[in-house]
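quick one, two chains, predict together pls
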Amino acid sequence: AQRVTQPEKLLSVFKGAPVELKCNYSYSGSPELFWYVQYSRQRLQLLLRHISRESIKGFTADLNKGETSFHLKKPFAQEEDSAMYYCALSGGGYNKLIFGAGTRLAVHP
Amino acid sequence: EAQVTQNPRYLITVTGKKLTVTCSQNMNHEYMSWYRQDPGLGLRQIYYSMNVEVTDKGDVPEGYKVSRKEKRNFPLILESPSPNQTSLYFCASSLSGTGYEKLFFGSGTQLSVL
């Protein structure tokens, strides 16, 4: 069955520290993977997607098919990075987009 | 401004009283979808639509109906709401539903069923 697992409900770091938000998936075919972010009182919005191999706001994520992971990383966390982060998987387009339970990132000064 | 608009933002109702949550987008998007967000479960897809008059079930469609009579609107209908449908609901849209496009989300509707 398709599944996205985000093992941490809360990740708490200090400003300037490296951040890694974990995401593991289960999917039998070739998945499309995304990271979405929800800042306080704002809508859910796309942060990045693996097909674009982009870096947004200093965040990167690499698809590791061997480990079935798509961890989100940033070398130096900023206070404005504090938000709820969701990893999501699709088997092709958004027809069946499956989200993980989310990880709350708290960056302290 | 290009956006997805949901109404109402907050809704309290009682078991069995039919309700509709509206969703409208002004971007001429073909793809629209509904999700519910519950603590510890993340977002789960309820229904989606690839175009006018084309709808399909997501992962948790039981107890919900949708319709897509016009491109811009995708209402979510709860014919007989129950307390287990108390949740935060999000509508989303994209141009054609491929993973290469951005998925735009509404601001959410917090529903409480008593």
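Chain A is about 0% helix and 45% strand.
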